Each structure stands twice: as C-alpha cells, then as structure tokens.
Amino acid sequence: MKRIIKYLVFSLLILLSIAIYSGIYFDIPRDKLEKKYATGSSNFLELIDGSKIHYRDEGNSEKPVIVLLHGFNGSLFNFEEMVPFLVDEFRLISIDLPGFGLTGEVPTKNYSTNNSIQVINELTKNLGFKNFSIAGNSMGGGIAWRYAIQYPKKVEFLILLSSSGIYDSEDTKEIQKEDTESPVVWKLMRSSFLSYFLSYYTPKFFATQGLKASVYDSNLATYELANQFHELTLMKGSRRAILSRFSERTYNNQKVDVLKEIQAPTLIIHGKEDNIIPFTSSINLDKYIKSSELRIYPEVGHLPMLEVPEKVAEEIKGFLNKP
C-alpha cells in the first residue's frame, strides 16, 4: 500500500512538473513580432519620452477621424474585423496602448490611464488632428471617456464598446454579483505573489480561455487569434508591463458624478452575454452621461467590434452622421 501511495505521489509530482514546465515561455524579441504583425497600415511613432507607439492609420484621409482604443491585454488588432466597414466614411487611427500589442514595454514604465491619455494627445498632435471622435473597448473605453472629460473641445463624439465605468455603492454590489466568469489569469493577477509568478508562467491556455470568456460564440475564439494574443503577451517586457497596468489604482476614489461632465454625444454599445464587464455597467453609464444612446446586443459578449463588426460599424455611422 505504501509503495502504491509513493508511486501516485511521484506520478503527480511528475505531471505537475510537466504542467509548470509547459507553461513557461521565454520572451519573444520585439523585432521578430514586428516582422510578423506590423503589416499593412502599421506605423510607429517615437514619443518625446522615448516610447515607441504602434498605430495604424487607415481609411479616407479627407473624412472625420475616429481614434480606436483596445481593452486590457488586447491590441489594435481587435478592431481588424470592423475597420473595413468604416474605411470609406472615416479616417481610423487605432493605437496599441503602452504595455500592449506591438507597443509593449515603454522606457518610462508608466502604464497608467493618465499616460495613455498623453499618448493620445501626442499622437493626434503629430498627425495634425485638432478634433476627432474617440472609441474605446473595455479598458480603452474607460480611457476614452476620461479623455473626453479632460479635453471636451477636442472630442466630437464618444463611442463606448463594453466599456469599463464607475459606479456608486449600490451599482458596484450589483455588478460584482454578475461578474463571475472573468478569465482565470485575471483572477490570479489579483494576488501579488501569483502575479509575479505569471511574469514567467504564461501557458497558452490562459490566452485561449481568456478569449473564449470574452466572446459569446466560442467559434470566434480561433487558434490563430488565441496564438496572436499569446505571442504579443510574450514580447520582451510586455508581461511585466501588463501586470503593472493591472495593479493601477489611480481612479479608485473617483465619484460617479464625474460622468455628468462628459459633453460629447455618446454611443454606448454592450453585449448582453459579456462575462468580463456585465452589461449593467453600460446601463449605469447611460444613466449618468447626459447626451447618450444605449444599445444592448443579445448573443454578444465583451468584444462587439469583433463579434458583430458590421452591426457595430452601422451603429457608429448612423450615430456620427446624424443631421
């Protein structure tokens, strides 16, 4: 009996060792990923602080500008499915925010919302834009509406796609009840010890599970897309940057009434089956933003611009082209 127990323990240790070893990935050099993914309309802009920002400039240069901001652990590639439906009527500037995509680690190690806002300022100034609309998904939505508050004269329209928000105490309790299926890796990041472990242990399973949790139709969580998420996370320095961004607490004490300061006409879109940010978050945004319109899509998850790109594009065109 003792021999059997020893054998089982030994076997479990071997299996555990294999599981841990298979999840340890080395950094991928930046230039290797740039060669693979910086295609088509990809550009890089070096900022005053030395940050190298990856962005795409697509569409009609004579038409109104929309700046596109991705969510946490995402990239500008999250908008690829939607862009073709908008290029004839708009100029589209999609940005890899500091810490993510092909921007990745930046010299300042500053991955805060405030720094992302400054990146938008410097990039749009460099491209010669005085006024533009801004659209953001998830974390990018939170950056977008805060930008609209800080620079009301610059933002013509605001578009929030399954956006992060800000809540009063009652709303927070209700939203927390619904937030039960967020990706495993996000839950692990809440532990300081485990988050350090994640800077080395990053199995592809995390990318696959995270993507499946983000979309309603699991068929959209393809191997190719999950692999792209995973490889961009592995770019040299990006894992530390992502973990740093996750721990940001700059706006923890911000009050919900700040949403009333948003002046730009706002289109709010949210998937009813969102497992990352419950759609009640957008109901809350619509309640406090003065000039807003809300769309809740059934059978859509956290990435509406990827899941139903044509539908979202038509909503945007209709909203921005109102007489």
What would you say this structure looks like, in words?
- The protein is α/β, with parallel strands linked by helices.
- The protein has a single domain (30-320), classed as Rossmann fold, CATH 3.40.50.
- It contains 13 helices and 8 strands.
- The protein has helices at 2-22, 30-37, 113-127, 139-150, 169-178, 184-189, 192-198, 204-214, 223-233, 238-246, 280-288, 304-307, 309-320; strands at 42-46, 52-59, 65-69, 91-95, 132-137, 155-161, 266-271, 292-297.
- It has an 8-stranded mixed β-sheet with strand order 1-2-4-3-5-6-7-8, sandwiched between helices.
- Helix 4 (139-150) links the parallel strand 5 (132-137) and strand 6 (155-161).
- Helix 8 packs across helix 9 (223-233).
- The chain starts with a helix and ends with a helix.
- Residues 9-24, 177-181 and 184-189 have low confidence and may be disordered.
What topology emerges from the helices and strands here?
Layout: H1 2-22, H2 30-37, E1 42-46, E2 52-59, E3 65-69, E4 91-95, H3 113-127, E5 132-137, H4 139-150, E6 155-161, H5 169-178, H6 184-189, H7 192-198, H8 204-214, H9 223-233, H10 238-246, E7 266-271, H11 280-288, E8 292-297, H12 304-307, H13 309-320
Parallel strand pairs: 3-4, 3-5, 5-6, 6-7, 7-8
Antiparallel strand pairs: 1-2, 2-4
Helix pairs in contact: 3-4, 8-9
Helix content: 40-55%
Rounded average pLDDT:
85
Distance between the termini: 81 Å
Summarize the biggest pleated sheet. Answer: 8 strands, mixed
Low-confidence stretches: 9-24, 177-181, 184-189
* Count of all domains: 1
Describe the global form.
globular
Q: What radius of gyration results from the CA coordinates?
A: 20 Å
